Amino acid sequence: MWLLSVSPRADIMVKPFVPQLVYIEPRALEYPLGVKLQNKFKDMGVEIRETTSHNQVRNLPGDNDFQKYRTAKSTLVVGVRKTLKFDTSKPSAEYAIPFATGCMGHCHYCYLQTTMGSKPYIRTYVNTDEIFEAAEQYMQERAPEETRFEASCTSDIVGIDHLTHTLKHAIEYFGRSKHGQLRFVTKFAHVDHLLDADHQGRTRFRFSINDDYVIKYFEPGTSRLKDRIEAAVKVAEAGYPLGFIVAPIYLHEGWQSGYPEMLEHLEAALPAHAKKNLTFELIQHRFTKPAKRVIQKNYPMTKLELDENKRKYKWGRYGIGKYVYQNEEQEEIKDVIGSTIYKMFPQARIEYFT
Asked: Is residue 4 domain-resident?
């Protein structure tokens, strides 16, 4: 019998993701990785179904939307990426490179809830050589300038890569490139299989970190801060350029001490050489009206503060506005967190605050 899993608590160690249900597009079996994944999941005893398209997965188990959403977050779809035109990915990179879509985490605030709409299941794409060929064209257009590719705009690819190894192959592909760099960010600590990748220093491995309050209440199903920091130390020892995204910066009671404590733990753990070429990206919590509706539907008991009256309205791209913190609150964020970073990591750089 197929059972619906409950999201893991945020204060216990999260095991590597294993899907409870797998869908495979017939076309995916025309690629070696598609066949390899089919055999892997058969050997693991995971239920496998067929779907005509990774965009057309229907009849997920569950008696209501609440159950079906949780089913989707533990479902993996193996498909072929048909659109090979890459979106821009400012400010973190020039382009987003699409290896996967969706995430098994249950972060209450995540924008993927809105962008993925009725398709919150996880997708992995097996036509990786075609994706690399498209990336090569983008690099040639910009050469001799470096072109950065962001691999985690629509997914936390580290969360599934122990199964697919797509990210590992990408790291080694960009390690061989002349003008390409890879970037990605994760909330997961399952990095051991990536430590021996031949990255040649051309991949920046970033971790999303937050203080204990945010991880406990808003990031169920992801690795604990302690585990993320331990994974970051492994990554640093493997010679990767390292980075941290502090996001979303959320103004809860005690945040002025919570974030400096988080940075103290990080500073104490990182080896000295990793602090010399370190980057930070700071992103304040924000939400849109459509996101608020989706969040309250998917996580009706959330403690997340979503009061428009407490926020400043900021116009975004495509005419869609978002609610961010007031100007004075933003200045306090930069003062508290920014000054702590400069004090503890004087050789690091803050790439942006938004």
From this structure: no
**Which amino acid, residue 96?**
A
More confident residue, 1 or 78: 78
> In sequence order, what are the residues at sequence separation of 6 or more whose Cβ sits closer than 8 angstroms to the Cβ of residue 266?
209, 229, 232, 244, 344
- Other beta carbons less than 10 A from residue 305's beta carbon: 12
Q: Which two tokens stand for residue 134?
A: 């498209």
The CATH number of the domain holding residue 328 is 3.80.30.30
Nearest to 294 by CA among 163, 151, 115: 115
In terms of DSSP bridges, do strands 180-186 and 349-353 run parallel, antiparallel, or are they unpaired?
unpaired
Per residue in 99-135, pLDDT tens?
999 999 999 999 999 888 778 999 999 999 999 999 9
Show the domain range for 217.
Answer: 21-353
Q: Is 152 exposed, middle or buried (0-12, 13-18, 19+ CB in 10 A)?
A: buried
What whole-number distance in Å separates Cα of residue 139 and Cα of residue 147?
6
Would you give the end-to-end CA distance of the chain in angstroms?
A: 46
| Report field, pTM of the whole predicted structure over 0.70 | yes
Asked if residue 144 lies in contact with residue 91, where contact means CB atoms within 8 angstroms, the answer is no
Q: b/e map of 28-56 (b: 16 or more CB within 10 Å)?
A: bbebebbeebbeebeeeeeebeebeebee
pLDDT at site 89: 77
CA distance 86 to 81: 11
* Whole-angstrom distance, CA of residue 207 vs CA of residue 279: 11
